[in-house]
Amino acid sequence: MRVEDIMRKTVITVNPTTPIGEALLLLRANRIRHLPVIERDILVGIVSDRDLRDALPSRLITHDDDETVLQKPVADIMKKHVITAHPLDFIEDAALQIYEHKIGSLPIVEGNRLVGMITESDLFSSLIELFGVNRPSSHIEVQVDDRVGMLAEVSQIFREAHVNVSSVIVYPCKKANKKNLVFRVQTIDPRAVMQLLTDKGFTVVGPTEGEVFL
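Predicted structure:
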């Protein structure tokens, strides 16, 4: 799945001269946490709700220049080095960007032109859909030898059981020369296919019998 498939194409933006107070109202009115800063259709910065909160006068201590702070331009507090993504990037690469840089959103650009926006929430929702957990299904985890063709061999068992697979995740096992295959399958009761896997000599890690209907 590409970034362009999940990005928000209608993006609330400000320009460098937008007052801090006005930017804060935009965040609150639209229930968002980040505002890209645009100048002549080019992305030049970004401000977050945290940036704005840090710039605001204290509620506990008033100063003569409190109103002046609210009228200052966002250019004074915006981050000029912006981490971005391209519409054709894969969503897992975008997720890695957000994870590595500890940021809450990614402006999507073509050249320097802003064309969309994705947030942590957008990525989280997309991953849920990719894993198939938003539809009636069951989780089956199988431990296999770490060799070529094991995924195809296990998948053949699901075909024999006439059970459709929504998603597959492969991750390393703690045991040497083993790996775990996690299947999300479109059946509410996976016991029959679990038994078939066991009969074929595969090690079913989970769910256990008691967890099947949890």
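Summary: The chain has a mean pLDDT of 88.
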